[in-house]
Amino acid sequence: MNAAEQAIGLEVTTRIAAVVNLFKAQFPDARADLKPWANDPDTQEWMDPDSIDIGFHLPGWSRSLQSRSVLVQIRFYSDPMTQTRRAIGLEAAGFTHLGEQWRLSTIENWRFVGNTQPTDEVKEKLKLFCRQVFELFNSGEDETS
Length: 145
Known about the structure:
Blueprint (H helix, E strand, L loop, with lengths): L2 H4 L3 H17 L4 E3 L7 H6 L4 E12 L4 E13 L4 E13 L2 E7 L6 E2 L6 H19 L7
Antiparallel strand pairs: 1-2, 2-3, 3-4, 4-5, 5-6
């Protein structure tokens, strides 16, 4: 779901802003888009209400990122018993005018897949960003993953 729609309270809004700052710390030229999904029925059908989605747009095509835009989707699990919300996965995908070029998912083994992929240095920056996002949303909890 668009980050702008998830920014309901001060705590979540502050964390979304922190995610933007974490990404920009690695990729300073990126511009954040808190509404990366269109507001049409077809897109709305695929939206995950248990996610925060942020787009990052670069001023042009990035050779090191092998993309012009990166979509970041932070997935959550809400425990109804404890009323806590925990980040359980993060997906990032790089796009050009030709569509998706690569994808990173923390759900399984943190591997990059795709026809073109970022440089090794950028892959490490993206993985660091993912670890920082988990720390941001899950700090103070016992992490088993």
